[in-house]
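Sequence in, structure out. First:
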Amino acid sequence: MSGVKLVRQIAARPETVFEAITTQEGLAHWFGPDAGPVLVAEINLRIGGSFKVRFRMLDDSEHECSGKIVELEPPTRLATTWQWLGREAEGYSRVEYLLRATAQGTELIFTHTQLPDEEAARDHERGWNGAFDKLERYTNHAPTTR
């Protein structure tokens, strides 16, 4: 099994970043590796709750992932299972977001583990980096609701 670990510094409070990764509105603004739209963003934010996101990439391909929430500690931690629609034979992988307050905002420590091989890890790393570029832009302009 392979995995991805990314660390990002985001100029927004952990509460703002957490809201962006745990709400339908937030997910709709940043999910996906390029500037293509999010078509579906659903999340039931509780242990055992599910999420589903479907997005279209600029090449017109559509991708859908889903999973269950397995750990939840607002506003610092979220862990989920992860599975691509149409690739159920690969089984579930695990996604985890850790948010730590810093003087500049938030340090996001992200891991995506239990991927089937190194090629999948490289593909996911590229995808997550593109998505997190959008997350940074979104949270820099997102209204603070807490």
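Second:
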Amino acid sequence: MSTPTDIISQLTRDEGVRLEPYKDTRGFNTVGIGHNLDANPLPGQTYPLTQAQAMQILGKDVERISMFLQSKLPWIVKLDEARRGVLQNMSFNLGVPGLLEFHHDLADTQAGNYEQAALDMEASAWYKEVGDRAKRLVQQMRTGDWQ
């Protein structure tokens, strides 16, 4: 897959597409493109999903996470799209409450100190656990270019 240029393409690559429900690495019931069924059930949904349904669910998930992020971190609207995408992607991976634990990273991001924010990300347990996805997001924070 080519380098994504938006959050939907990036999440599709990072989460993968599974049209039947499955347990993710943390034991959550999941379907589509990383949709957490435990936190956000899809009542009456039949499986397998179609690709179009998976994309529609992802679009709604990104919108919901983006609105929640903006309510908790109103300054993110001032970030360029790629750096805002880092926080959206991390929220998708960790949940917004998990992202909010990155106090130093968020403070440095808000201040525009992107190199230090990237170093903060690299120093986290998340970075060691997530692997290539984390490496790409760190680079994206540094450069402001989609990875």
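Remark: The mean pLDDT is 95.
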